[in-house]
Design brief:
This protein has about 290 residues and is mainly α. It is built from 13 helices and two strands.
Length: about 290
Amino acid sequence: MTINTSRLQKSTKPAISWIAWLGLVPFFIFGLAFEFLPILTTIRSSFTKDGLFTLEFYRQAMEPLFLRSFATTFKISATTAFLGMIFGTLVAYAIITTRNKFVQNLLTALSDVTTNFGGAPLAFAFIVILGSTGIITLLLKEVGIQLYPHFRIYSASGLTIAYLYFQLPLMILLIIPSLHGLKREWHEAALNLGASTYQYWIRVALPILFPSLASGFLLLFANSFGAYATAWTLTGSDVDLITIRIAALIRGEVQLAPELADALSIISLLIMITCVLGYNWLSNRAIRATTK
């Protein structure tokens, strides 16, 4: 007696396929409830006034008050993204060139942990360390170094330092695969052709790493641009960020204008989407450059 196994396979494949798709149902429900529907609601609110379509809230979003908030946010985001890109790449290179595998794994794991440490706990940690009565502040005072009033952790410069705490390890995790993609043969070939190590990095390595560096910068920029909890806990309203401005409009601290806050949120969302799309495009270029 022979059994037609091909028919059995055909009959079981659809069932297995449907079971696999059913496993994704909770994910789709979560995404729909907490991502797509809130975005659609925000878009609708930003274009609606008294039940009618309007661009009034976007016109208000272009007023000097909010443009200054966007400018401040752009400045801090660009600064922390650039510094995170530079120092993160240097630290990542030091990690991968370390011969001790235990140290490599330890530092990589530490970067993974610190890049996810943010929000109010991070702000409180910096207040305890570098606040007006912080540990390091008091230790420096004991040796005759006065941080305050020349430096304040509650200012834009202090917020920049706090952002770098999670920006730098994020860049480390992003750039390590690209640094591993630099083949040793390229360096040896450049040296054999008479190039110095400096010339190798300027003419060979950095052009190959440029897509990875640029994509990392864009992702760090978006990461900083959308931050709120750390900034609010650390500085309150002393630093005029667009995320803090949006929250103030929703809470009604100065004026209650949720529709205007929605318009500002959509503009911010478009900026962040642009950064993420640029990151994806440059990441694909980086993969092609390091796999040739």
